[in-house]
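Budget justification, computational time. The allocation requested in the original proposal was used primarily to generate structure tokens for proteins on the priority list. As evidence of use, we reproduce two of the resulting records. The first is shown immediately below.
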Amino acid sequence: MMDLNFKSDISDKYTSKSQIARILTEKWMQENAYCLSCGNSHLSAFENNRPVADYFCSNCNEEYELKSKIGTKTGSKIVDGAYSTMIERVSSNNNPNLFFMNYCNIDWKVNSLMIIPKYYFIEDIIEKRKPLSISAKRAGWVGCNINISKIPEVGKIYLIKDSVVINKNETQEKWQQTCFLKLETIEARGWLLDLMRCIETIPNSTFTLAQVYSFERYLQQAHPSNNHIKDKIRQQLQNLRDKGVIGFLGGGKYIKNLCTRQKKQLALAFSSEATPQSRYRRLQRFFAEVVFNYDHIAQPIMSLFDFEARVATTLL
């Protein structure tokens, strides 16, 4: 079980707040963080000042980098290092997975810990900052921000959220859900991530091909060299379906796929001798074929609250 508290006594000999934070967060990661790729319960630290990663898994060699800041909210952007270095890393796939930690520097404890798998990093999310002024020590140096608002929510995996530790099996399941992306080319990943982000903005759990087509202009601007956007949308929807990210219900209808745990809970809520997977497939077919009249559904619900009487009382 993760301990949210830092061992603040190990930093007693330091006076710099930044040094204290570095010592405490690094020690905490070594004792509490784990590898989401293989489940190894321990991460090893690289030597100091390594330019790319901070930690590695001795079992599967997966590499990780840690960014941290004071507070409770991650925000939409993460400040990173040199812009040119980051672009080079993203373009060559030579980038580690990114841990991002929020912590409190009063009682020294972790508020949240999120990881973004490395295959979610594409050039589109790296923002170039203004060069440092001529009066700065590193005049002309250009840094960057990582705009995580452009990353689909499925790519933001919390190990700790709002000071609550998330079950390890759940975090690893989320990690495995989109591991197929690391086998895709950078261009293909860009298309898939853009489409996944579009689908996430659709409020319902089910959606139609026509709804996805409504993002045609946005996708055309994001991929100006492609002159067959609708064809590409259908191709990528099929790709996401084959990878289990979405489900195809037939008749131009799709469903945002639930995680394995949610599918099992939903399927087991219905009595049947069939396997949970078969029960879930039956539910998919049912919702694909049935059209609900929400006006009829709303009538008995509204009658329970006697809104007409309440309105009359209010007017008096």
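The second record produced under the same allocation is shown here.
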Amino acid sequence: MSETTRAETTSAAMTPAKQTALDWVEGAADGLSADHMTLWHLHEPAWREYRSAAWYVARLRAEGFTVEEGSAGMPTAFCADWTSPAGDGPCIGAYAEYDAVPGCSQEAVPYRKPRAGHHPTAAGHTDPHSALGMGGLTGVLALKAAMVAHDIPGRIRFMGEPAEKMCGSKPIHASHGYYDGMDAAISFHPTSLPALSNTVLWDTHCGAYWSKVFTFTCPEPHTYGGAGDRKGVQNYHAVARAPAVQDRLVQRPAAGVGQHVLLRRLRDAIHHHQRIQRGRCASHRVIVLNALAVPCTAIGVRLGAGEGE
């Protein structure tokens, strides 16, 4: 395509409503950039995005959206709806993700430097979902401005999707019907590799995976603090070494799931949590498995089969 033809095509495709949306983005750019840094500095991990979700809820309500907090029973999820003053019409959907990645604590510099004042294994927005969420919000607010200015009927639904790294909220929202009724949904992910930025090809999604959360509770937690007061031979040392259970889990996978897959995925998920808990028994320990779906009963059997653990 020649440059002249390309310019003519671009000009022909540009409508007053589109220009209004672009003008809105341009005028709000500085504020949007500052908002992004607000979310970037919150850097909350999966299912712990309380302040990030609260920020979105407050911002969307200020923009005239009706917001349901804790949608589908998830404390850090939300569902925001807006209907044009021109009336009901097609529904356009979009979403924000805002979970940070454990082990990616990072200052805003182009080299490896964990945040000052935070543990090196703290979560950070290096993916970055802070920009993903802000990009989605920018799109719907620009769309809203164009619909108001040009009397375009329709609705906007903006979803708050926590725990994306655990494949967390989207399947739950979908199973509860939150994506029903959308005429179109727009997904955005920031990347430096445009050709590899999407796992969706037309109507086929080729990046699906499963996630499970296993919770282990120590019924009688003990610490090393009272070791000097104990008499006789006791096995509390083994109790305090709860990470040994995790080692046994990655070494003995459930039937039908490759050991290599479990070892890598499970170890990656629990590594930072285990280091933070080192030196004391965690009375409530949560392990995340981002891998192939594994029957919980099979995992339970394997956990109980450890000799001397």
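A brief technical remark on that second record: The CA atoms of residues 83 and 155 lie 4 Å apart.
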